[in-house]
Amino acid sequence: MKYRRLTKEQLEELHPEFINFLATQSITAEEWDTLKKEKPEVAEEEIDVFSDLIWEGVLNKVEYLENISERHMHLFHLTDKEMKLLSVKIMNPEIDLRTEVGFGWFKRNFQSDFVEYLTASKAYGEDKNVDKFEIIKQGGVITKGELYRWFEQIVEH
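== Histidyl-tRNA synthetase ==
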């Protein structure tokens, strides 16, 4: 398996797509039920292949990831050629960026000495989707990139 198996909830949500996937494998509903009972390892493999296909499709489209912790923000822009990072570090130990109050403090104080910025970029390895998935495994969340673009304007000025 290249990525990770979809959760039960994700599989339920993608039930119509999974049925189509089985159909492309020429597996009917009856055959699927039989597989699950008599050859569960084969059924598990089918779920793993389907999961990888779904992840591949999602990762091909993802452009922005965010990983926000108590005092750090790692904002990624995933371009065709490289991963760009905008990193923010808060030096105020009383602030938690994951809260409304903490983020409000940050918005008011983003130019203060209590905030450090770092920008970096890195070329992808052999498989850019695997690189993207690593960020997700470490807590990255797929976003539309509003925060990244807002920071990009701040950092440029």
